């Protein structure tokens, strides 16, 4: 079924490729609101029609090719949902309400979905039947909704997450976590992907994720390394051009990037002192494929309702995911005080240190969990996480050479838990160790490690090169199993092969024989290994 869906979408793209797709752009300017148009390749920019002076702040735009109608939201007192014909005439107010309209998206019945502050709302095509489908538990405004009429879903950003409901507001699912403020989304169900604008004081980028929430990547970054006013406001997939069109309202332009990401091309610049707010396509919203991940010709929703497992409640059948509801054995869990919003700075200038103690059994570490937030995704390798042995004082690490290391990146949400798990392999005998976090990119990465709720006090090191006094612990988790350091070759057995493997490294003073991690290979390492070997683990 997935192959048929891909063919259908490819056919749809081919069918519109011969005719230029226009991008419609809602523009606001005091007493001078307009809808502009431009070819998706940047040709023929023009004002399509002007709006009456009292409708100068359009904050939502949808186009229905079958009727030739535009559906717009006007942000005012009151806010308004209204309709025009294809040339801007026949303006009809469909509904007035007290609130803050954002976005406009249509289902197959012509019903209009829009955000109103922290509410998702719907009104019939004739303006009747205004209802609230969803109310966020948070105070932030939700993002502009996007309807998938084929599968009966509506997607929207909410409190740093991307969520989905049925068209009646039921069956709430959370797909993507760890964002700052998702202002708009676009869909490609056939490819199993969702695209989004994440725009807040510490984020301003176009991202992509799989519909199960995995595979999050950045396609276009508009927020280099500092907290600035965000500008990305809306986006749309343009199949005929194989691009994503999006609005940058700070720079007052509409740009495109390739679907796979890449350099941006400006296709439209707002005239005068106007600002772009929302986009629509002359072809209407691209039709979506049936969501049928296992190819049984049955919608995934129906499969799940019939008992197919969805343990993480993300609307994706577990057997279609690379991993779902992962169970981890935590050897260390410092907890997470994400709501605090503060923590330890992790940049090229500041390093953060978290000590931890390994008990007599030792640890076989397999994964490192970290939580915090970033101002820039960089290339996904913004920080280095390294484990060092203690220097023998219990107060500082011996930073001679890391026992294990990995690079990674925090997510963007500054007040919610957004754990990042990184593969990290290490055999740690009993003793005190230190996790060091440091920025990799000197000018393009700024982040903060969240504070934890328990654990040993963390420390920092800055330009003075001296360690700070211990403070609150950092949000750190270490997963794995109780270790067996005497199993030197990691084959699951303690026998002569392990002794031979250790001895072969010890004889040539290889750093791998530094069993006690003190930075030297000497008799102390031999004694430490022999002690564990004789103990059987």
Describe the structure.
There is one protein chain. The protein has 537 residues and is mainly β. The chain has three domains: 2-318, TolB, C-terminal domain (Neuraminidase, 6 Propeller), CATH 2.120.10; 330-482, Jelly Rolls; 496-535, no CATH class. It contains four helices and 36 strands. It has a five-stranded antiparallel sheet with strand order 31-30-33-27-35, with no helix packed on it. The chain has a four-stranded antiparallel sheet with strand order 3-2-1-24, with no helix packed on it. It is elongated, with a radius of gyration of 27 Å. The two termini are 52 Å apart.
Radius of gyration: 27 Å
The low-pLDDT segments are 1-18
Share in β-strands = 35-45%
CATH C-level of the largest domain:
Mainly Beta
| CATH domain topology of the largest domain | Neuraminidase
The dominant shape is: elongated
- Nearest-integer average pLDDT: 90
Q: Please work out how many helical segments DSSP would assign.
A: 4
Helix content: under 10%
**Numbering strands along the chain, what is their spatial order in the largest sheet?**
31-30-33-27-35
- Can you tell me the CATH architecture of the largest domain? 6 Propeller
| Largest sheet composition | 5 strands, antiparallel
- Structural class, please? mainly beta
* End-to-end gap: 52 Å
Beta-strand segment tally: 36
CATH superfamily of the largest domain: TolB, C-terminal domain
Domain module count: 3
